[in-house]
Amino acid sequence: MKQKTLSFILVLVMLLTLGMPSVTNAVSNNSILYDLSASETDDVMLVRFTSDPEDAEITVYDSELLDENREPQVVLSQKEIEDDPNLDKVYLLKADHLYYYDVTADGYVSVEKEELKFSADDGEEGELTIEIALEQIEESDPEAGESQEQPLRTALAITEQPVNAVAEVGETVTFHIAVQGDNVTYQWQFSKNGTTWSNSSATGNKTDTLSFQAASTYNGRQFRCVVSNGTDTIVSDAVTFTIGVKLAITAQPENVIAASGETVSFHIGVKVKM
Predict the structure, then answer these.
(1) What homologous superfamily is domain 157-247 in, according to CATH?
(2) DSSP assignment, residue 91?
(3) Contact (CB, 8 A) for 189 and 197
(4) Using CA atoms, how far apart are residues 98 and 113, in angstroms rounded to an integer?
(5) For the chain, where do the domains classified as CATH 2.60.40.10 start and end?
(6) What is the per-residue pLDDT across 120-139, written as a single tens digit (0 to 9) for each?
(7) What is the pTM (predicted TM-score) of this model?
(8) Is 220 left (phi over 0), alpha (psi -120 to 50) or beta?
């Protein structure tokens, strides 16, 4: 430490010899006050760093002074030179000169190789204050389960398959499917041969229930539903629509009176229509 103190005194002597500003300090309320107002030039300035949080560690590097690894050399702070805890984060730096600084603190995002360059006009009475606010690292709640951050998704599954339908021409045909899962999408399809499938445009073609009016041209068509949750896709069973037989009574039976032993007949007229 004595060697560092001597080095600092020699630096100041050299600065004074070269016409650089003089530095005086006085102790007041356990603080160090600097007075450079008597200086003829402002080529050197006392730079004080203030940080949030207060216990952040700050390291300053000189861009032109390289260490043995060809990296910018660390600039000694007044604290390291004079071993005074009140002088932490205070540096004697040159104006119009490029420096870098690092700032680290537990629980905060670090600042690395931030550029620092100031002019003689930036400070007041030869002193410049640099304020640094670090961003706090967001910590996860240890009591909160992982499911709160990444909720478990319900597995996609068909719980109720559609069933075959029979209807007469003009009647409404309905196919329904029940599915469990999150963010489920539906697409009903039809096929005339059970091999080639096309998307249906009937009512409810993108819902869990498809409906349409029965027509003779639909007889024998197969239908199915493709469901997806964005990750998985399931295809339902194929079901068949059939036109039903339409019966019509064209003649009702009539009352008959007959003698004993005579043959009695009743007649009904029925019409079958596809």
Answers:
(1) Immunoglobulins (2.60.40.10)
(2) E
(3) yes
(4) 11
(5) 157-247
(6) 777 777 788 888 888 888 76
(7) 0.40
(8) left
